[in-house]
Design brief:
The protein contains 12 helices and 7 strands. It has 320 residues and is an alpha/beta fold.
Amino acid sequence: MGLAQKVAGGDRRAAARLISLIEDGDDSIRPELAELHRNSGHAQIIGVTGSPGAGKSTLIHKLARGFRERGKTVGVIAVDPSSPFTGGALLGDRIRMNDLSTDPGVFIRSMSSRGNPGGIAKATCDATRVLDALGMDKVIVETVGAGQSEVAVMDVVHTVLVIVVPGLGDDIQAIKAGILEIGDIFVINKADRDGVEAAQRELEMMLEFENEKGPWRPPVLRTVANKSEGIAPLIDKIDAHWDVIRKEGILEEMERKRCRREVLELLKHKAVLSLLAEYGPDNFDTLIGHVASKKLHPHDAVEAILSKKRPNNKKKNKKK
């Protein structure tokens, strides 16, 4: 029995193994991934983004508990900053959410971003499919919290939660810089702090000027995650958004956009590898040397690779 079949049968060890192989870029599992792809599409994928220190992990912990209390199974993918030495995840959300790790209805996995821009690991799309096929009703993706580049989360998930805290102007500035347009639900966490009223007014005012989002109007909610306050209304809104995008036919269009992005990313990756392999590593190193020594502009180097024009590697021998 293959890993994909084991995952579909609820085998958590097989799911963990498959995600590890996905992270490692093991091409031998492509048939498994194809089978997973055919059997996915049932879970709601929820992205949680926001500035570092906004309390994303605590909020996700409480959301997972809340979903479990409603009889839903939950997968959590925490995309952490990469270790500069091992490439592995540094923060280890499985430790932070230790009390959930023994719940058979919860699957938690930390993944390294490995420098991938947008706060999303390259393997995140396939990892969400693994948890979908495993039978998770809700899959929560927590991003690293890297400011406006977090817009990449929109292409991976169905529902985007943007988390801010009162009294931090940087959060509002980040939203103005681009995150505002991707949020489906805005959450003011740590709402027991001073400045929560002003933060909510400013958010609601900014949302008023946003383009119409069709049948869904992004709400602004308050939570105090470490006290479990506001979690139930937040879950209600998450469920409501899921209902709307399915009933209005939005889900199908979202899936097309998600698949388009994924295919293009894979195409770019494969095309680059193919071009460099054909050009030759030695030729490429020589070309980079010409760019570094200012003999060649980077644009010209790219044109040389595309046209397969090799640099002159021969060294001139001086006559004695």
